[in-house]
Specification:
This protein is mainly beta. It contains four helices and 31 strands. Among the domains are: 52-70 and 353-433, Beta-Lactamase (2-Layer Sandwich), CATH 3.30.450; 143-337, Distorted Sandwich (Beta-galactosidase, Chain A, domain 5), CATH 2.70.98.
Length: 434
């Protein structure tokens, strides 16, 4: 060190500018921490996903949906039709449903596991929906022109009457004349006599069923309101093949028609017999007639007597075979289309789930304490719920208690009302708790 010189020490301290910066930073940090604390306090006050209020409303929502939900089954019936107009439909119904109906609540009968109903068809594809649920269906009250008993069935609008003896066709008249009698059925040469069979007549306003059960086979005839037709089914459990012959005496007709090449006048003076293979044969007088439509591979023959025609039709008896006797106005042109009128098939069953209005109504009428217990809702707190339609109108309102001056929490969700026909409609379920 050089003698005589003092060592200069550095100044310790901050400038005014530096102090101001430090103060600002401290203030900003403090404000940030205050804001952050306030934010978390605010968040904790909101009913978040795991908050008690939200969980309670979820319990109410789930309880309502669980108790008001139900299932409805629907199945489409496809009808591919070659004709247009109203037809008597008889279709094997393969489901064991107890409560079911058409989506449009159209009238029908179910007899011998067959769906029997008249229907307006269009040429081409027709689709009918059938629905089933746990709720009963009430069919519309309609007036049908079928007058039936165990011994007869008549359709006044068609001037048609069929007489049955022991559920077996004995005579038929049409347009005020006797047209058919001496009706017989034989299987493999054995005549089936009605007095040896067990019989059943099932009569309703829409249809009449006449059934005979023999050891060899069973025979069922249907007459459907509005139609001058006898629609017949022959069934058997036999594994070996059998031929069936349907025979009858035909009266008061002057023409026959099988095909354009095989048709003509019935000459009662000259007599004679005609035979061939065909599913179709018609007898008429130009004003009215009767047509027989039988299964594929049928053979027919008829012989003309003094004033009658004795006719027989033979075909192979399947597990179930159908043949139709169709009385009609006009000549054969009225019925040629009925050889293959339509084909039917059921589609896949659709299982639908939604809220049932009757079940919701039952819930809406349940005691408040009962629902509180079922929904695990605290006795010290209250709730209400409202079902709204798609326009915001109130359908049901469950409000046993008023909220008063208190905090109210709300939850609203979309639900679908499912009616017994399988039709869904959009609704909203609003739940309030306090």
């Amino acid at each position: 060190m050089i003698a005589g010189k003092k060592r200069r020490m550095p100044k310790i301290g901050l400038s005014k500018k530096a102090v101001a910066i430090d103060v600002d930073w401290i203030i900003s940090l403090g404000l940030f921490l205050i804001y952050l604390g306030a934010f978390f306090v605010f968040i904790r006050q909101l009913p978040g996903q795991d908050s008690p209020a939200d969980s309670l409303l979820d319990n109410v929502h789930d309880g309502i949906v669980d108790r008001a939900s139900w299932n409805v089954q629907r199945v489409p019936l496809f009808i591919n039709s070659n004709i247009s107009g109203k037809e008597p439909m008889i279709i094997n119904f393969p489901y064991d449903w107890k409560n079911f109906t058409f989506e449009d609540n159209h009238s029908f009968d179910i007899k011998d596991s067959k769906l029997v109903f008249p229907r307006q068809l269009i040429q081409g594809k027709n689709v009918l929906e059938i629905a089933s649920s746990g709720e009963n269906y009430t069919l519309p009250s309609e007036d049908f022109d079928l007058e039936a008993s165990p011994s007869a069935a008549s359709i006044d609008s068609q001037r048609f009457n069929a007489e049955f003896s022991n559920a077996f066709l004995s005579r038929a008249s049409h347009f005020d004349k006797e047209r058919l009698d001496e009706f017989n059925i034989s299987i493999s040469g054995i005549v089936l006599k009605p007095e040896t069979a067990s019989t059943e007549a099932n009569i309703s306003a829409l249809s009449a069923k006449y059934k005979l059960v023999y050891p060899q086979a069973n025979h069922t005839a249907f007459v459907v309101a509005g139609f001058s037709r006898i629609l017949n089914y022959v069934g058997t459990d036999a594994k070996e093949s059998h031929d069936i012959v349907v025979s009858a005496t035909v009266r008061n007709y002057t023409f026959f028609h099988v095909t354009n090449a095989l048709s003509g006048t019935i000459n009662y003076t000259a007599g004679g017999c005609t035979s061939g293979s065909s599913r179709y044969i018609d007898f008429n007088d130009g004003v009215s007639g009767v047509t027989f439509v039988t299964p594929e591979g049928s053979n027919f023959s008829f012989c003309i007597g003094n004033s009658t025609v004795r006719m027989g039709i033979q075909f192979a008896l399947q597990n179930e075979s159908r043949y139709d006797i169709i009385f009609h106005p006009g000549d054969h042109n009225a019925t040629t289309r009925y050889v293959s009128p339509y084909r039917t098939a059921f589609g896949a069953i659709e299982n639908l789930t939604g809220v049932s209005t009757p079940l919701y109504r039952k819930l809406n009428e349940t005691a408040y304490d009962t629902l509180k217990s079922a929904f695990r809702y605290p006795s010290s707190r209250d709730f209400s719920f409202t079902l709204l339609n798609d326009t915001g109108g109130t359908v049901f309102n469950y409000q046993p208690q008023l909220a008063g001056a208190t905090n109210v929490f709300a939850k609203e969700s979309e639900v679908f009302i499912l009616d017994k026909y399988g039709i869904k409609s959009r609704h909203r379920l609003r739940i309030r708790g306090w």
